[in-house]
Task: inverse folding
């Protein structure tokens, strides 16, 4: 449930950029998409600090508090009378969401050391549901009630979810890794280098993933005249099949991570390159196929990363991993807004987007060649 809410807030704004620009009287579209970039930077940048906390305090309390802050940020955003307060609200929301992955991924790896890919795949279903339902809901509500109503409602839903989690979840042993939490994460400079190579590769994959959400919405509304609801539906389709692919490939990867990771990322790159080229009636099917393959890579890479480091460092490693890779990767919404703005009238033609999608596909292939190789080498170094 927490994984779902974390990603509900990541994609809720995707169908709403044009409405936000008009309502807040923003000078250009990049000002609206910059809100998404700021939120995601605020989400990724403090993740290492969240990882330090996750190794030292009760993770149940940390996870609950993070969701509450995330939800309050969205409630404040819905009430923001101007752009400055909208920026502050997205920062609050991002910081609240930053605690989830460092705390939850390490917690899962600790409790299920034998088959982390399988269990992380099952937990990944929550993210897929959040990614799927959020843009569909926000696009649908915005058609009649404007962009503020769904943002407020999603914030209120998050407060309820935090209460449910706090009621049912067990406390965790806050002292389990406290004594060893001050030990160095990696023993050698070579391991540090391998880690940062993997994190950089993650940023390439994440840049493409974030671009597929943002650019898909802008592309469909500008070049094909889709309404916000239909753009939200397309974003929803991007994540719906990942409900099945996350547990499927996560389980398969426990018997061979490299070949399954290669399969899903190569297929994801193919879908990205095809997106602006297919007839309009194939759009929803293609974005669903992209999500089926792309999102399945996350539990596999997280599993090999957790296997590569000692238990006492897992929260810090996960936090630093997404701080480095995720922060760089999530400049995509702002960059895409600037790119679409620079197209001018040409943004109404599908062919104009082909070079952009070709570049994004190449980034996915780069991410696989570097990320998995670096993680594997890191695991070998740690074993030695």
Result:
């Amino acid at each position: 449930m927490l994984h779902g809410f974390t990603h509900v807030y990541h994609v809720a704004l995707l169908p709403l950029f044009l409405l936000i620009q008009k309502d807040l009287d923003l000078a250009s579209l990049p000002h609206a998409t910059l809100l998404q970039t700021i939120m995601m930077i605020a989400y990724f940048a403090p993740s290492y600090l969240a990882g330090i906390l996750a190794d030292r305090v009760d993770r149940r309390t940390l996870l609950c508090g993070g969701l509450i802050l995330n939800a309050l940020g969205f409630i404040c955003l819905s009430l923001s009378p101007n752009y400055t307060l909208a920026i502050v609200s997205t920062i609050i929301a991002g910081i609240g969401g930053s605690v989830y992955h460092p705390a939850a991924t390490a917690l899962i790896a600790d409790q299920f050391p034998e088959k982390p890919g399988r269990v992380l795949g099952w937990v990944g279903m929550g993210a897929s549901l959040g990614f799927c339902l959020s843009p569909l809901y926000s696009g649908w509500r915005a058609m009649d009630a404007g962009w503020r109503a769904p943002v407020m409602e999603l914030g209120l839903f998050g407060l309820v979810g935090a209460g449910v989690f706090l009621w049912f979840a067990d406390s965790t042993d806050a002292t389990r890794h406290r004594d060893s939490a001050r030990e160095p994460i990696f023993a050698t400079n070579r391991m540090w280098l391998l880690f940062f190579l993997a994190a950089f590769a993650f940023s390439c994959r994440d840049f493409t993933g974030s671009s597929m959400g943002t650019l898909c919405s802008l592309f469909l509304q500008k070049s094909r005249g889709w309404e916000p609801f239909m753009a939200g539906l397309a974003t929803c389709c991007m994540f719906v099949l990942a409900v099945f692919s996350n547990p499927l490939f996560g389980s398969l990867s426990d018997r061979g991570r490299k070949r399954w990771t290669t399969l899903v990322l190569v297929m994801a790159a193919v879908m990205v390159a095809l997106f602006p080229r297919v007839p309009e009636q194939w759009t929803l099917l293609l974005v669903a196929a992209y999500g089926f393959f792309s999102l399945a890579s996350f539990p596999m890479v997280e599993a090999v990363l957790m296997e590569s480091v000692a238990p006492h460092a897992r929260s810090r490693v996960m936090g630093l991993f997404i701080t480095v890779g995720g922060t760089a990767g999530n400049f995509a919404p702002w960059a895409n807004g600037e790119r679409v703005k620079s197209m001018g009238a040409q943004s109404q033609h599908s062919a104009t987007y082909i070079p952009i999608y070709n570049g994004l596909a190449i980034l996915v292939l780069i991410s696989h060649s570097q990320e998995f190789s670096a993680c594997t080498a890191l695991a070998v170094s740690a074993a030695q």
In short: The mean pLDDT is 82. The two ends are 38 Å apart (CA to CA). Residues 2-171+187-383 form a domain with the Growth Hormone; Chain: A; fold (CATH 1.20.1250.20).
